[in-house]
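SAMPLE LOG
Freezer: B-3
Tube label: C17
Construct: single chain, 318 aa
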Amino acid sequence: MAAEPSGRSRPVPGRTPDFFIVGHHKSGTTALYEMLRRHPQIYMPTLKEPRFFDSDLHALANAPTGTRPESLEEYLALFDDARPEQRMGEASPSYLRSRTAAAAIAAVQPAARCIAILREPASFVRSLHLQLVQEHVESEKDLARAVAHEQIVRDGKPVLRYSDHIHYVEQLKRFDAAFPSEQILVLIYDDFRRDNEATLRRVLRFLDVDDDAPLELIDANPTVSVRSVRADAALRRMYSERGPVSRSAKGVVRALTPKRLRTAAMRTIRRRVIYGSPQQPEEAVIAELRDRYAGEVAALSDYLDRDLVAEWGYDRVI
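STRUCTURE (predicted):
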């Protein structure tokens, strides 16, 4: 059971993380996680998204049972290998969307530093749609039809809407209510993409670690399109334990091919056959998305005291 949100801190066994990358998805969080965990003064667990504090979203999660910590002790055990002098952190992009995560984090670590990355809404929705198609959460490949339908359904149950992510000001206010302003760093995705190194060194200074150390810059989790959802599903069935392919046939494949080679083969097939570079969306679709989210961009501009309306091209909409 995840830690219950509370306005008061309480003692917990073991060391608690010093910082959290709280979101959003498709906004550079994976790249930031990969770069930070290579810094000698930082420890981040191999499990990128523990998602321990977003208890309100667990019913919507698509993670296999047992892959994420369920008790506080299991969660803190993720950091057992950290050296005493290292800053410990984790990255769960769903925390920003969660209504409970900010207060739950503050309850166990009131000194936590939180990093949020925000992306221009139309670009974000397009990238999220491609990711959800890739993960077989979204079955509609056409962006216009997907966002028009808005609701994403898994196993007959609604799990999320695209616009659930685009409540930037409301989401930031939850963290502002739980932490002092000096413990929150809000980054803009465009800055991160334009100058990885400068943004990363800004984060290192925010975390009070050496920002002069050599950096390994990484472009992680690139956006791709799925050429054929059906072919990708067939590939998953072939290499997984489930699906209509007979167990005996799968047993032969597993017996003759080491897991490492099976995984490499699946990645190669996906990269060369199933995945491709995404096409540019129709201008009309992007225009409709910008019109839909113009009010949120204006509010965020005021909240951050930065003219994102002009930077993101919404001055032509509002």
